[in-house]
């Protein structure tokens, strides 16, 4: 699956979906580079190394900071060969646009959009050195659903959707395959879990375990799948219901989270 000695980089691997994606790669024997904002990610790397016997290193970086993204990619390009880049680190939330602090808005844009773009741009030459390499971008069902009280988050995931498909086409004659996953709600942390609870029936109806989602994401990425669909029913509803009906409907559900 991977060239011996080449690593998979997973951003936001200290917890949540990123942690599960890292574990799924470890289970398949892949060497790992994991990133997070604090030393917790070092414990995850140690744990996966001990459990699966794979090389696993950790890097601490705040990916909302441009200079930290560029320092990380320079370090990785100097010391490691990569066969996979998983752009998982991302953030969102539910607030009225007017009352959202500027830091909150900028962090979403900087992490979800700028960090993903720069990491991919800086690491692509490294990935291209492998006969076969993979980029997995973790998008969201939100990309397909403009929603009030979230506004910037779905828009950032719509960016990732468009970016991934465009880049995939651009790289089609190379050994690098680009995939985008569109998970729906996942109870990955306390804040998201509380939000899902407040959404009521619809929040819980589409809930899937992060382990099964991670498994599907890695399996389909390695098969070179373009769009990794996690909740076919939610996607079908998004395609069938026109925006003029879907946006008010979803926004009413999301408003319960405020
Ligand atoms: N949860 C959902 O319902 C849901 C639904 C659809 C899509 N998604 C997407 O799935 C991905 C993972 O979500 P999740 O719920 O698993 O997230 P999570 O539990 O909140 O974990 C976020 C991860 O990203 C890292 N991170 C946060 N801020 C960072 C920063 N400034 N710089 C670098 N790393 C940072 C965190 O590292 P530290 O722990 O070190 O801070 C952590 O490892 C995201 O892209 C999210 O948008 C989530």
Offer a few descriptive terms:
single chain, 258 residues, alpha/beta, Rossmann fold, 7-stranded parallel β-sheet, 52% helix, globular, binds NADP nicotinamide-adenine-dinucleotide phosphate
What's the structural blueprint in terms of helices and strands?
Layout (H helix, E strand, L loop, with lengths): L5 E5 L5 H12 L3 E6 L3 H13 L3 E5 L5 H14 L1 E7 L14 H27 L4 E6 L13 H19 L5 E7 L7 H10 L1 H5 L4 H13 L4 E3 L2 H9 L2 H13 L3
Helix pairs in contact: 1-2, 1-8, 3-4, 4-5
Bound molecules: NADP nicotinamide-adenine-dinucleotide phosphate.
Can I get a quick summary?
With 258 residues, this protein is of the alpha/beta class. It has helices at 16-27, 40-52, 66-79, 102-128, 152-170, 190-199, 201-205, 210-222, 232-240, 243-255, and strands spanning 6-10, 31-36, 56-60, 81-87, 133-138, 176-182, 227-229.
């Amino acid at each position: 699956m991977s060239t011996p000695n080449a690593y998979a980089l997973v951003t936001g691997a200290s917890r949540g979906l990123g942690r599960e994606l890292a574990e799924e790669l470890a289970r398949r024997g892949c060497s790992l580079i994991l990133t997070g904002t604090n030393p917790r990610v070092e414990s995850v790397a140690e744990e996966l190394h001990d459990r699966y016997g794979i090389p696993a290193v950790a890097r601490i970086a705040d990916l909302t900071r441009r200079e930290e993204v560029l320092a990380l990619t320079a370090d990785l390009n100097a010391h490691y060969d990569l066969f996979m880049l998983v752009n998982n680190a991302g953030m969102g939330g539910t607030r009225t646009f007017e009352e959202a602090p500027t830091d909150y808005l900028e962090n979403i844009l900087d992490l979800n959009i700028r960090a993903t773009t720069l990491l991919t741009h800086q690491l692509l030459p490294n990935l291209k050195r492998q006969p076969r390499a993979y980029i997995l971008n973790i998008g969201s069902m939100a990309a397909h659903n403009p929603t009030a009280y979230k506004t910037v988050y779905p828009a950032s995931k719509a960016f990732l959707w468009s970016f991934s498909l465009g880049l995939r086409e651009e790289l089609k004659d190379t050994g690098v395959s680009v995939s985008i996953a569109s998970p729906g709600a996942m109870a990955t942390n306390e804040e998201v879990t509380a939000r899902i609870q407040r959404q009521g029936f619809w929040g819980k109806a589409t809930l899937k375990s992060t382990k099964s989602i991670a498994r599907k994401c890695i399996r389909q990425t390695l098969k070179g799948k373009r769009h990794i669909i996690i909740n076919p029913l939610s996607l079908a509803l998004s395609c069938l219901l026109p925006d003029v009906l879907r946006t008010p409907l979803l926004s009413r559900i999301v408003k319960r989270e405020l």
